C-alpha cells in the first residue's frame, strides 16, 4: 500500500503477531485456564477467542481425534490445540496446565508522515492508550461527589436574606427556622435554629415537614446514591482489571442501565421539589424562597449520570467490537 494511502495504521507490541485486527502472543510457560486468563488480563488482553475458520487456521499455522472436544466424563470444560492430532481441538480439565495464547486489539497510530523509507514519524493517538471507560468512570465519580454533598447539605431551598421569613433553609434531612411557630401546635412552641428532621424538636411538625411527596424525594435520592456507590465499586473493579475480562462488557452495560435509572430518579426528585417549593401548604411564604445550591448539585449529578450512562454503553459496545 502506498504511503499516502494511510490516514492511520495499527500496530502490535513487540513479540505480538497481528491477524484480522487482533494481536496474538504465544506464552510458552504452562498455566491453568484461570492462571492464563489472569496473566492475559494483567497484560491488557484476554485468552484468545476463535471466531472463524480463518482465525483457527492462522493459530494452527502459528503453532507449527477428529472427535474432539468430547467432554469426557463431563469434567472437561476447557479446550486446547491437541498437537499429536494435527492441532485439532481437544477438551481438557481446566486445572491442567498448557501454553496459551493472549489476544488483544492493536494500538491506533496516527499522524504518520511519508518518508523515503515509507511510513515514519507516527504518533500514538492520545486516546488510544487510555483505558476504555475512563470518561465514564470520571462522570460517575463526579456525579456521586455532587449528589453526596446535596444529600447531606441543608441548602435545597433557602429564604432570601432580606426577606421577613420565619423559614431559613432546608435540605432532605434538616430544617432551619427563625422563631417560627406552627399554627397547629396548641402549645405555641417556637422553633429557632436547625434540627434533624426526625429529632424530638420537630416531632410536632413532622407530618407538615414531611408530606408523602417529600418522603418520596428522600427515598429516591437515597436509593440513587446507593446505586451509584455500588455500581461505581463494581465498575472500578472491572476498570482496573480486578475481574475477568469477559465480564467487563456485561458490567459496563449494567452500569450504563443503572446510571440511566439513577438519572430518571434524580430528575423526578428535582421536578417534584421544584413544583412543591411553591406550595403554600408546605413552607411559609414560598414567594420569598428559592432553590439553592444543593438543588443545583443534584441537578449536576443527574446530568453527569446521563453522560456516564452513554459513556459506559459506548465503552461496552467498543469492548464487544474488539473481542468479536
Helix content: 40-55%
Write down the secondary-structure element order: EEEHEHEEEEEEEHEEEEHHHEH
Which radius of gyration do the C-alpha atoms yield?
A: 30 Å
Overall strand count: 16
Mean pLDDT: 80
Give the percentage of residues in beta strands.
Answer: 15-25%
Contiguous uncertain segments of 5+ residues: 1-9, 65-77, 108-130
Q: Tally the helices: what do you get?
A: 7
Structural notes for this entry:
By secondary structure, this protein is of the alpha+beta class. It has helices at 33-42, 53-62, 134-152, 206-209, 212-239, 248-276, 293-323, and strands spanning 8-11, 17-19, 22-31, 46-47, 78-82, 88-92, 98-104, 107-110, 113-115, 118-120, 123-124, 157-159, 167-170, 174-181, 190-196, 289-291. Strands 15-14-13-12-16 form a five-stranded antiparallel beta sheet. Strands 2-3-7-4 form a four-stranded antiparallel beta sheet, covered by helices on one side. The two termini are 26 Å apart.
Quick rundown:
InterPro entries: C-type_lectin-like (IPR001304), C-type_lectin-like/link_sf (IPR016186), C-type_lectin_CS (IPR018378), CTDL_fold (IPR016187), PMP22/EMP/MP20/Claudin (IPR004031). By secondary structure, the protein is an alpha+beta fold.
Amino acid at each position: 500500500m502506498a504511503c499516502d494511502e494511510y490516514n492511520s495504521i495499527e500496530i502490535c507490541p513487540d513479540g505480538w503477531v497481528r491477524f484480522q485486527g487482533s494481536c496474538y502472543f504465544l506464552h510458552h510457560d504452562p498455566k491453568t485456564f484461570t492462571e492464563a486468563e489472569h496473566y492475559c488480563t494483567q497484560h491488557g488482553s484476554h485468552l484468545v477467542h476463535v471466531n472463524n475458520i480463518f482465525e483457527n487456521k492462522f493459530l494452527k499455522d502459528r503453532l507449527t481425534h477428529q472427535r474432539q472436544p468430547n467432554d469426557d466424563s463431563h469434567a472437561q470444560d476447557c479446550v486446547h490445540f491437541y498437537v499429536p492430532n494435527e492441532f485439532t481441538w481437544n477438551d481438557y480439565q481446566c486445572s491442567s496446565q498448557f501454553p496459551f495464547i493472549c489476544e488483544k486489539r492493536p494500538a491506533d497510530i496516527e499522524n504518520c508522515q511519508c518518508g523515503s523509507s515509507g511510513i515514519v514519524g507516527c504518533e500514538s493517538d492520545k486516546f488510544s492508550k487510555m483505558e476504555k471507560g475512563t470518561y465514564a468512570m470520571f462522570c460517575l465519580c463526579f456525579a456521586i461527589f455532587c449528589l453526596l454533598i446535596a444529600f447531606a447539605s441543608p441548602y435545597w431551598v433557602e429564604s432570601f436574606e432580606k426577606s421577613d421569613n420565619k423559614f431559613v433553609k432546608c435540605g432532605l434531612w434538616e430544617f432551619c427556622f427563625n422563631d417560627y411557630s406552627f399554627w397547629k401546635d396548641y402549645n405555641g412552641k417556637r422553633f429557632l435554629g436547625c434540627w434533624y428532621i426526625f429529632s424530638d424538636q420537630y416531632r410536632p411538625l413532622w407530618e407538615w415537614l414531611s408530606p408523602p411527596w417529600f418522603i418520596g424525594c428522600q427515598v429516591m435520592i437515597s436509593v440513587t446514591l446507593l446505586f451509584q456507590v455500588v455500581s461505581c465499586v463494581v465498575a472500578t473493579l472491572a476498570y482496573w482489571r480486578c475481574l475477568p475480562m469477559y465480564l467487563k462488557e456485561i458490567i459496563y452495560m449494567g452500569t450504563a442501565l443503572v446510571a440511566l435509572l439513577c438519572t430518571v430518579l434524580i430528575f423526578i426528585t428535582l421536578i417534584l421539589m421544584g413544583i412543591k417549593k411553591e406550595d403554600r401548604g408546605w413552607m411559609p411564604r414560598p414567594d420569598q424562597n428559592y432553590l439553592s445550591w444543593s438543588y443545583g448539585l443534584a441537578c449536576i449529578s443527574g446530568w453527569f449520570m446521563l453522560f456516564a450512562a452513554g459513556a459506559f454503553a459506548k465503552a461496552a459496545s467498543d469492548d464487544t467490537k474488539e473481542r468479536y
